[in-house]
Structure formats: C-alpha cells, structure tokens
C-alpha cells in the first residue's frame, strides 16, 4: 500500500500507510493526525482538511474540481498555489511517497 | 414497548421484524435502549408498525446516505411516499430532490453558505453571542432554551437571511411543522399540519424577492436567478429551505451543547481551560444528541444491503442518532468528550445531501460556547429539564439553569 508523508506546521513529519482507495484526509484522520480536522467527513463542504502539496508533487495530482477550488478560497489559512483539500486527493499507487504540508490552522 | 426480535425464517434475507414505534412519545422520552435493540437486532431491520425498513448501525446508515441513486430523496425523506401520496407542501427543491436536479440547486446554496461567506458574518455572530452572554450574566438564573438556545439564533439568523422584523414568531412553529411532517401520520404530524396554514402563508410571503433585505442569504439566492443558475420560481423555494432547516435545528444544536456542558462539568472545565475546543464541543454535542434524529429514503430498485434484500419502492428509515452512538464505530459512544475526533459522525448527514448549512450551525455553536466559556465559571441545572416532542428533532422545551460569573 502506498505511504504518504504529512509535515506539521512545526516541521515534524509523520509517514502514514494508506489503505485501498482512501483519501489523504482519511489516512490522516485514521492515524489521528491533529492537523487535519475534516469537519464534513470528506464531503467537500468544510475546507478544514486543507494541505499544501509539496512542489515536486503538485503537477502529478489530478486537477481539482470547481467546488474544491471555490472552497479553498474560504480556507482558514492562507490559500497558496499549492493548496488542495486532502479529502479530494485519492491515494493511488503512483502517489506513493506524496508529501503534504499542513497549514497553521484549519478553522 | 415490546420488542420481538424473531427473524422471519425461510427467506434468504432473514430480516428481523421489530415491534417498535420510533415516533411514539415513550420512545422519544428515552430512545437509547431502543436504539440499542435496533442496532443489535441486525444490520437491516423491519418495523411492522409503519411497514418500513430501518438501519441503525453506522456502516449501513453511512452506506444508505452515500448511495443516492439507490436510496433516493425525491420520493420524500419522511414516511410519506410522494409517488403514492400528495406531499403536504410543494416538495423542497434540494432536500427532496435527486441528481441532476439536486446538483444545480445544491450548488447555489453551497455558494450562499460557503466558508468565504462565513468569514464575512463571523464578527457579527460573535458580537451577538457576547451580547447575549452579557444579558444572561445579569439574569444569572434563566431558561437555557428560551433565553439562550432560541434567543441567540433568533437574534442573528433571521437578520442574516434578510427577513423583515414583522412575523418572525412564525419561524419556529413553521420549522416544527416541517420536521413533524417527516414522521408517520400520528397525532404530532396531524396536529402540526392542521395548524400550519398561517405559518405557511408567512413563509411563502417572506421568500419573495422584494421581502428580502439586500446582502442577506435570501437576496443572494435570488441574485442567482440573474446569473441563470436557477429560475425565478425556484428561488423562493430555496429560500424556504433555509427558513425550514436553518433555525430550529440550531436551537436544538445549541440547546444540546449547553445541556451536555451543564451535565458534564468536567467537560465544561476542560473547555474553560482551552477555548479552542469550543467548536469541537459543539460538534460532539451534535454527535451525542443528534438534533436531527432520523430521515427516510426510498429504494429505486431491488437492492441487497448487508445481506438483506429490499425491494423497489420501499421506505428505509435511517437512525442517525443510533449510528452516532454505534459502538462498532465509536469508542465509548455514550460519553460526551469534547476532545473526541468527531469527523465522520452523521448528525449532519453524509454524502450529497449532507447539511448545506453545517458551517452556519458550527459558527453559531462555536462563538456561543466561546462567549460562555470566557465569562461563566459554572452552569448548574436548577430544575427538571422538559423535553420537546417532535417526529424528527430531538431537543428540550426548557432547561432551568443558574450560571456563576468567572
Ligand atoms: C445543528 C444544526 C443542524 C443539523 C443537526 C442539521 C442536520 C441536517 C441533516 C441531517 C441533513 C441531511 C438531510 C438528508 O440527508 O436528507 C441536513 C440537510 C440540510 N440542512 Fe441542515 N442541519 C442543521 C443546521 C442547518 C442550517 C443552519 C441550515 C441553513 C442555514 C440548514 C439547511 C439544510 C438544508 C437546506 C439541507 C438540505 C441539503 C440537501 O438536501 O442537499 N441546516 N441538515
Ligand atoms: S473534509 Fe471537509 S472539505 Fe475535506
């Protein structure tokens, strides 16, 4: 199963194993990482699963849908070009090694 | 209430038939033992009283919510099947709709109630919460339902919508009709509908464009007509959705949170020690009390769910509240823990119909609990809480409390 790395705002990092078809958000919450709130449970409605995608990975992710784009404007932490909602990133084998940075705040 | 858990024998799908009425007064008074019976009887049960299937475990409730093509909403999310019975009011264009119709109306309300819009109303909602707490600190002893859980949303939500000051007393009674009407034809539903005419007239009038103040949620919905996203006849009905679902639910949500924090003083002290827990304290109260207890779906085809076969055109009752306390999903489900990871609870539903107003509800809950925890050292329940009975909503009618200033 692919593993992905979450970097906390303080620079510490956590590498987590994902299970089949899981989103990055689900992997983070299943492993109890505090930096991802996911208040809406992955329904693309809350923007509390915001992440900054590592520069080397950004172009390798599938493009975002309009609703994700709109929601990111309302994210609590600053929106950057690398911003994504982690509930919308489904981990496929080619994303093994993905690096996601968590923002200072989610609400 | 007697419960017979005897499975129907012979068939491939041994679905337990239960003699349980989840819309009876004695059930509402204490639903938890019956929720457990429903969960433990099997993944899918049949309720003979109303001839409906029921799901009370987290996995099945979540599965039904997330398969809207099989478990549809357009035939009504109450017991009444719109294919067989005339709906008591024109159906909702969002709640009681399926894709693709739902997708379009949903996009409009999502934009009107988006995280970006919440940033704009946040300061106003916060100031009103602080004002309300100032007032309560002067009183010291009050009814936490009327004076807090109702008074606070009433002081901000109708204004946020852009409603006229006159006639707002119809709002809570109207919502109570709407939520009673999802239930079976029992006394609660019949009486609610019989008395609904004046409330319906008020709501129909308020939903018109000329009656909604510029800048409010209502006006924003109508503005989408100009963009061609919805028609001029659809807009008032979408405003109606916010009037139906946006007030009473938050009254019960805030009421639930205060009731929890008053009952569990250790959690109150934890919150006082770390105000950043306020938002999750509200969320956990929505899981723990589940202000919206149930919704129905109707099957669009024969379907197998966790080994049970359900035919086409059957009503399926989802026990959101039971799923939110399913020990298969939650650790210590019956304890109120404000540090719990609440993500995934179904108090706001899940999937395409998941509450479009959830950000409004959370904002109200968060700022109110923050304002309280900043200024109040203790909340004491000083009299017997009284329950308010509704076919769908769970909440209190009164909760006498005394607060001590910090
Ligand atoms: C604590 C407060 C609230 C709770 C517990 C709650 C609960 C729910 C639930 C369980 C659903 C799902 C219905 C279904 O799946 O059939 C829902 C949908 C909905 N809610 Fe809420 N709600 C709350 C507050 C609000 C607020 C504040 C608004 C409006 C500002 C609102 C507007 C709606 C609307 C329009 C829908 C229909 C969405 C759709 O069908 O796509 N709700 N709510
Ligand atoms: S979990 Fe809510 S938007 Fe991702």
Automatic annotation (TrEMBL), chain A:
It comes from the Bacteria. Keywords: 2Fe-2S, Iron, Iron-sulfur, Metal-binding. Residues 9-18 have a biased composition (Basic and acidic residues). It comes from Bradyrhizobium centrolobii. One of its GO terms (cellular component) is cytosol. Pfam families: Fer2. Its cofactor is [2Fe-2S] cluster. This is Ferredoxin. GO terms for molecular function: 2 iron, 2 sulfur cluster binding; electron transfer activity; metal ion binding. One of its GO terms (biological process) is P450-containing electron transport chain. Residues 1-22 are annotated as: Disordered. Residues 2-106 form the 2Fe-2S ferredoxin-type domain. Belongs to the adrenodoxin/putidaredoxin family. InterPro entries: 2Fe-2S_ferredoxin-like_sf (IPR036010), 2Fe-2S_ferredoxin-type (IPR001041), Adrenodoxin-like (IPR001055), Beta-grasp_dom_sf (IPR012675). The keyword Hydrolase does not apply.
Automatic annotation (TrEMBL), chain B:
Its cofactor is heme. GO terms for molecular function: heme binding; iron ion binding; monooxygenase activity; oxidoreductase activity, acting on paired donors, with incorporation or reduction of molecular oxygen. It comes from the Bacteria. Coiled coil: none annotated. It holds the Pfam family p450. Signal peptide: none annotated. SUPFAM superfamilies: Cytochrome P450. InterPro entries: Cyt_P450, Cyt_P450_B, Cyt_P450_CS, Cyt_P450_sf. The keyword Oxidoreductase applies. Keywords: Heme, Iron, Metal-binding, Monooxygenase, Oxidoreductase. PANTHER family: CYTOCHROME P450 YJIB-RELATED, P450, PUTATIVE (EUROFUNG)-RELATED. Belongs to the cytochrome P450 family. This is Cytochrome. It comes from Bradyrhizobium centrolobii.
């Amino acid at each position: 199963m692919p593993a992905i790395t979450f970097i906390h705002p303080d620079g510490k990092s956590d590498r987590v194993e994902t299970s089949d078809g899981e989103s990055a958000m689900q992997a983070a919450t299943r492993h109890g990482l505090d930096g991802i709130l996911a208040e809406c449970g992955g329904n693309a409605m809350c923007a509390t699963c915001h992440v900054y995608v590592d520069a080397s990975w950004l172009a390798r992710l599938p493009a975002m849908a309009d609703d994700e784009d709109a929601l990111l404007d309302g994210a609590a932490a600053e929106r950057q070009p690398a911003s994504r909602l982690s509930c919308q990133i489904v981990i496929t084998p080619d994303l093994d090694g993905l690096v996601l940075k968590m923002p200072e705040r989610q609400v | 209430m007697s419960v017979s858990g005897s499975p129907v024998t012979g068939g491939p799908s041994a679905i337990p038939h239960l003699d349980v009425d989840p819309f009876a007064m004695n059930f509402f008074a204490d639903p938890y033992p019956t929720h457990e019976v429903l969960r433990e009887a099997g993944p899918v049960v049949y309720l003979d009283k109303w001839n409906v299937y029921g799901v009370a475990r987290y996995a099945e409730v979540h599965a039904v919510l997330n398969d809207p093509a099989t478990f549809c909403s357009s035939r009504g999310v109450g017991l009444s099947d719109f294919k067989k019975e005339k709906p008591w009011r024109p159906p909702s264009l969002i709640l009681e709709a399926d894709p693709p119709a739902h997708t379009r109306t949903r996009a409009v309300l999502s934009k009107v109630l988006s995280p970006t819009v919440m940033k704009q109303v946040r300061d106003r909602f916060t100031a009103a919460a602080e004002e309300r707490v100032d007032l309560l600190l002067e009183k010291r002893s009050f009814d936490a339902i009327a004076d807090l859980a109702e008074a606070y949303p009433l002081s901000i939500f109708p204004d946020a919508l852009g409603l006229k000051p006159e006639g707002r007393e119809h709002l809570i009674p109207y919502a109570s009709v709407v939520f009673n009407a999802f239930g079976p034809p029992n006394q609660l539903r019949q009486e609610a509908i019989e008395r609904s005419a004046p409330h319906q007239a008020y709501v129909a009038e308020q939903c018109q464009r000329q009656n909604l103040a510029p800048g409010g949620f209502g006006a924003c919905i109508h503005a989408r007509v100009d963009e061609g996203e919805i028609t001029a006849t659809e807009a008032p009905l979408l405003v109606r959705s916010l009037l139906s679902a946006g007030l009473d639910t938050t009254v019960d949500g805030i009421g639930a949170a205060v009731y929890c924090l008053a009952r569990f003083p250790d959690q109150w002290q934890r919150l006082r020690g770390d105000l950043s827990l306020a938002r999750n304290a509200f969320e956990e109260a929505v899981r723990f009390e589940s202000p919206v207890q149930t919704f129905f779906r109707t099957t669009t085809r024969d379907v197998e769910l966790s080994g049970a076969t359900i035919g086409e055109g059957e009503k399926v009752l989802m026990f959101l509240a039971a799923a939110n306390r399913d020990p298969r999903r939650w650790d210590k489900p019956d304890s109120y823990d404000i540090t719990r990871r609440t993500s995934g609870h179904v108090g706001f539903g899940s999937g395409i119909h998941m509450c479009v107003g959830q950000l409004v509800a959370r904002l109200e809950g968060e700022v109110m609990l923050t304002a309280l925890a900043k200024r109040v050292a203790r909340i004491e329940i000083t009299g017997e809480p009284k329950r308010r009975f509704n076919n769908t909503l769970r909440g209190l009618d009164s909760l006498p409390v005394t607060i001590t200033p910090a």
